[in-house]
Amino acid sequence: MPKITPFLWFDNNAEEAVEFYLKVFPNSRRIGELRTSVDAGTVQKGGVLTIGFELDGQPFTALNGGPGHPFNEAVSFFVHCKDQAEIDSYWSKLLQGGGEEIACGWLKDRFGLRWQIVPENVIELVRRPGAMKAMMTMKKLDIATLKEAAKEG
Fold it and tell me: Could you give the CA distance from residue 54 to residue 62 in angstroms, rounded to a whole number?
């Protein structure tokens, strides 16, 4: 078990969010849950307080913590994709149900989490000024365009 596990605070929809993410990422699973034995803020006795889950092997914990602590731009999850089809797939799945495109491969899902959906070699590509300039004009990244722009700069 890794020593660092992202712990995500949801208002009261942690179960809905976990089920959503399990459908988006292959090789993912729900590990367990903690139900409260007493009323705990917005979670009534017997309700789910935390859920342990893995997304493609990366462990996470989701908390039904109540309102007042929304996700923001300061934290995002970097998803390295092997090809354009994988970028397209994650992009469309994570936007389902009210997500929002941002810029440069970033999006916000319907729960407010930010994701960066990028090619495996994104750092190598954007070291070239042409590719960096091209990326700055994109929302969803286009690998072919980035590669072509990298040749120019």
Answer: 11
Distance between CA atoms of 2 and 54, rounded to whole angstroms?
12
Strand partners, 60: 53
Q: Strands, DSSP E only, in the chain? A: 7-10, 29-35, 48-55, 58-64, 76-81, 100-101, 106-108, 114-119
Residue 110 half-sphere exposure, CB side, CA atoms within 13 Å?
Answer: 16
Q: What are phi and psi of 14, to 5 degrees?
A: -60, -40
Per-residue pLDDT tens digits for 94-131: 999 999 999 999 999 999 999 999 999 999 999 999 99
Q: 10 pairs with which residues across the strands?
A: 64
Pairwise CA distance, residues 144 & 32, whole Å: 41
Does pTM top 0.90 for this prediction? Answer: yes
Q: Give 1: exposed, middle or buried? Use CB within 10 Å, 0-12, 13-18, 19+.
A: exposed
In the chain, list all ranges with CATH 3.30.720.100: 7-64
Give the CATH number of domain 76-152.
Answer: 3.10.180.10
Q: Which CATH architecture has domain 7-64?
A: 2-Layer Sandwich (3.30)
